[in-house]
Amino acid sequence: MSTKYEIWLTFDGEKQKIQLPVLPETISQSCGSYNESVKISGLGEITVTQNRPAYVFSFSSFFPKETFRGVSVKEHTEPDSICRQILSWKNSDKPVHFIIAGANINMYCTIEDFNTSENGGDAGTIYYSIKLKEYRAVTVRQIKVKDNKASLSGTPERVDNNIVPKTYTVVKGDCLWNIAKKYLGKGSRWEEIYNLNKDKIKNANFIYPGQVLKLPS
To answer: Are 29 and 57 in contact (CB under 8 A)?
Structure first.
């Protein structure tokens, strides 16, 4: 089946990916409101606007046991394997990256619900429903006071759904700073890696290909 739409869930900095094999017939998208109505004497009812709540997406489809014309992926993956992967993402403390190519939907979401079932007449095919909720990183704001006037400043936090591995095998050209920057987010955390691996690292300036280093969780 030829279609301009593709639905993807990715995880761990795009290292893990699932393209949904069968597009759902409908996708429900909701975004409510936190606005409040207030009655003021002489003015009547007014609305106090608030920041919008998160978007919520929900849909149902199935992971087929056997491929067929309506499947939108090139390589077939066993339904059990897909379900286990989605459940592992749901149970982690990281959001997934939800993308609908062709529909201008591209955001990080938490998996709120994921339910599956099987029918006796279609052994191995797994039917599912899923609910995703937009994830927004906490923004740290600073209060600046100047001339007795306060103002808020801050930049949105970048969403990071990378998973830190328990160990790392050194390759040619590595240094502790670069490893810390890649896996811990800050090169200045290289000392944490060094302190965990003093039994292997005699000099923090020299590490060698093939060394297996522990990484802080």
So the answer is: yes
- Tell me 188's DSSP state: G
Residues 6+ apart with CB under 8 A from 68: none
CA dist 145 and 147 (Å) reads 7
Mean pLDDT (whole number) for 52-79: 89
Which pTM does this prediction carry?
A: 0.63
Domains of the chain and CATH, by start: 6-134 (2.40.30.200), 164-214 (3.10.350.10)
Q: How many helices (DSSP H) and strands (DSSP E) are in the chain?
A: 3, 13
H or E stretch including 90? helix 79-90
What is the pLDDT confidence band of residue 129, given thresholds at 50, 70 and 90? very high
Reading across the β-sheet that carries 16-19, which strands appear in turn? Answer: 16-19, 6-11, 96-101, 105-117, 126-134, 56-63, 27-30
Radius of gyration of the chain (CA): 24
CB atoms within 10 A of CB 123: 8
